């Protein structure tokens, strides 16, 4: 089945712990990456989260240490979790891919 991806997935950043902050908010959310490419990520947070389509967020990866900002393009809420897709403002740096 063909994929409509602009960027290849980055396997090394799959299922990594991640901290999510809505820009201009101080309350962090803790979750994990489900899928990461140079241009974006799919993230899950195991709690109801105040994340909505169009929100500007900062994603903080621990290992390797990377900070990126982006826009939430879609989100799915359940009673116990939230899964959402973030399009990065800039592509991940090449050193992050090699890490």
Describe the structure.
The chain has a 6-stranded antiparallel β-barrel with strand order 1-2-3-6-5-4. It is mainly beta. The chain is globular and about 35 Å long. Helix content is 5%, strand content 46%. It is built from 1 helix and 6 strands; from the N terminus they run ββββββα. The chain has one domain: Beta Barrel (Thrombin, subunit H), CATH 2.40.10.
Q: How are the SSEs placed, and which strands pair?
A:
Layout: E1 17-22, E2 29-37, E3 40-45, E4 56-61, E5 66-77, E6 82-88, H1 94-98
List the keywords.
single chain; 99 residues; mainly beta; Thrombin, subunit H; six-stranded antiparallel barrel; 6 strands
Query: What is the end-to-end distance?
Result: 29 Å
Could you report the average pLDDT, rounded to the nearest whole number? 82
Order of helices and strands: EEEEEEH
What is the correct CATH architecture? Answer: Beta Barrel
- Categorize the overall geometry: globular
Number of domains: 1
Helix proportion range: under 10%
Using the CA coordinates, give the radius of gyration: 13 Å
């Amino acid at each position: 089945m063909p994929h409509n991806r602009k960027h290849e997935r980055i396997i090394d950043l799959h299922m990594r712990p991640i901290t999510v902050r809505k820009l201009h908010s101080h309350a962090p959310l803790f979750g994990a990456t489900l899928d990461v490419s140079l241009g974006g990520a799919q993230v899950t947070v195991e709690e109801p989260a105040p994340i909505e389509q169009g929100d500007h967020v900062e994603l903080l990866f621990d290992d390797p240490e990377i900070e990126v900002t982006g826009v939430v393009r879609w989100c799915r809420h359940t009673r116990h979790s939230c899964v959402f897709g973030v399009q990065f403002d800039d592509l991940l740096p090449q050193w992050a891919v090699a890490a």
